[in-house]
């Protein structure tokens, strides 16, 4: 196996699932595994979430859903986002639950389902204020009448999405009120769901029939007791002592001050470490953080270490915590983005090793 890999702690995932269940008052979870489970590996994470008893999974593209089906996952899989009418056939063939935001997509799906002699289960997406996808909430009654005329469709659920349940209370409350109006128009007998991570944590009263956590499953949300699930580990390919005044890496952005021991780790920005982190990131070894020095290359980084060491040494390039320069949340902060972004950029070419109780239970090596 490549000496740079992602280790995924399934016990931390289980901890996060139970914390979220508790915060959401025990309603079922729809585990969001889009973008390769935020970089963690959608098949293995999806299987584990099913094992932990989630209602279903959610993905962003038909291809992501098909990938889960081909791996033998039979749980309900919700396809998020706006369905393009041209994908009606594929979505049914993959056995996914599409989200409807337009009558064009509804009609295309109705036709595709009837051509197969089937009814397609759908969830209706409502725009309660975000302005992105979904039928306008004001049209709830009109959309009901239109969808009831399409015999190839069976509405299984209704949902909407918070735009800013982290910071904007007034906006969030108006979204909840608009979702209530949709629920009043359609009535009982459907699965209603609204809350993402920020919604679960800040508006537990809006848990409805299910919640849709994504980033919190992976623990990448500080301050509430969640545990980051992934560590990025690497063994050095060489460790050498450079003389004073020696430049390191592309552009010579770092120059040794004295005799310095430098370890070269075989992973770089093509594996998802932001190139912007040069001279700012640190990596951990036996409890101590050491600076990444010089440019982050596509496939390698260089680290200043205290002395010589075995090539079997394992460095933590991503620590499973919220450290300001060695965690995914720290990387996000240092590069002016949210933790979601460094997570989803964890490259497919990194092998992924899954542990339960400290023991390897699965491995994926692309
Ligand atoms: C991505 C996504 C989620 C999960 O959001 P988090 O902030 O990661 O919890 C939930 N619902 C929808 C519609 C999404 O697109």
Explain what the structure shows.
The structure is a single chain. The chain is an alpha/beta fold and 366 residues long. It folds into two domains: 154 residues, Alpha-Beta Barrel (TIM Barrel), CATH 3.20.20; 135 residues, Lyase, Ornithine Decarboxylase, Chain A, domain 1 (Beta Barrel). Helix content is 28%, strand content 24%. The chain is built from eleven helices and 20 strands. Strands 2, 3, 4, 5, 6, 7, 8 and 9 form an eight-stranded parallel β-sheet that branches. A five-stranded mixed β-sheet has the order 18-10-1-19-20. A three-stranded antiparallel β-sheet has the order 11-14-17, with no helix packed on it. Helix 8 links the parallel strand 8 and strand 9. The model has no long low-confidence stretch (mean pLDDT 98). The structure holds pyridoxal-5'-phosphate. Pyridoxal-5'-phosphate (PLP) binds next to loops.
Summarize the structure.
This protein has 366 residues and is an alpha/beta fold. It folds into two domains: 56-209, Alanine racemase (TIM Barrel, Alpha-Beta Barrel), CATH 3.20.20; 230-364, Lyase, Ornithine Decarboxylase, Chain A, domain 1 (Beta Barrel).
